[in-house]
Design goal:
CATH class: Alpha Beta
Organism: hydrothermal vent metagenome
Number of domains: 1
Protein name: DUF1566 domain-containing protein
Structural class: alpha+beta
Number of helices: 5
CATH topology: Mannose-Binding Protein A, Chain A
Distance between the termini: 51 Å
Order of helices and strands: EHEEHHHHEEEEE
Length: about 160
C-alpha cells in the first residue's frame, strides 16, 4: 500500500513464535541395553546372541545398575503397539499377523529388541507373586512366567 507522497509503510512485525514443549509420551523413554559386564556382575548371563538374560530378581538388579528400571507390562507393550503390532494372549491370528508384518518386525528391531525370546516386565501377576508378565515382542504375546526362570532384560529410563 502506497500513501500520499509515495511513502510505503514497513510491513508489520513478524510475531516471535512461542515454543511450548510437549511432554514426551512414555514410549519415547530411553531404552537401556545392559552392558555385558553389568549383566554378568548382577547375576545375568549373555546368551549366544549377545543378549543379557536373567531371572526376574536379577533383572531388576541389572536395570538398577544400568541406571534404569525394568519396564512395566504397559510400557513394554507399547513397543508392540507403537510399532503397529497387536498385543495378544497367545491368540494365533494376531501372532501370525505380527509375524508377517515386515514393518512391525523392522520397527521393534530398530528399537533394539530381539525376535529370539521374551522380555521381563516389572509387573507381577496379581494372583501370584511368584510370576511376572513377559512380552514376546516378535509375536506381541503377553503371558505370565515364573520369576525363577531367565528371559531377556531391557531397561528403561523414564522421561528421557
Amino acid at each position: 500500500m502506497v500513501l500520499k507522497g509515495g511513502y510505503v509503510p514497513p510491513p508489520p512485525p513478524t510475531p516471535t513464535p512461542v515454543y511450548i514443549p510437549k511432554p514426551k509420551p512414555i514410549s519415547t523413554s530411553k531404552w537401556i541395553t545392559p552392558s555385558d559386564s553389568v549383566c554378568k556382575a548382577n547375576g545375568g548371563r549373555i546368551d549366544e546372541y549377545g543378549i543379557c538374560e536373567a531371572n526376574w530378581k536379577n533383572a531388576k538388579k541389572i536395570c538398577r545398575a544400568s541406571g534404569g528400571t525394568l519396564p512395566s507390562k504397559e510400557v513394554l507393550g507399547e513397543v508392540v503397539t507403537d510399532c503397529g503390532g497387536l498385543l495378544n494372549d497367545w491368540e494365533s491370528k494376531k501372532m501370525k499377523k505380527n509375524g508377517n508384518n515386515s514393518n512391525y518386525q523392522s520397527c521393534y528391531k530398530n528399537k533394539g529388541f530381539s525376535d529370539f525370546y521374551s522380555y521381563w516386565s516389572s509387573t507381577s501377576i496379581s494372583s501370584s507373586n511368584d510370576y511376572a508378565w513377559i512380552v514376546y515382542v516378535y509375536s506381541g504375546a503377553q503371558y505370565s512366567y515364573d520369576k525363577v526362570n531367565s528371559v531377556y532384560v531391557r531397561c528403561v529410563r523414564a522421561g528421557e
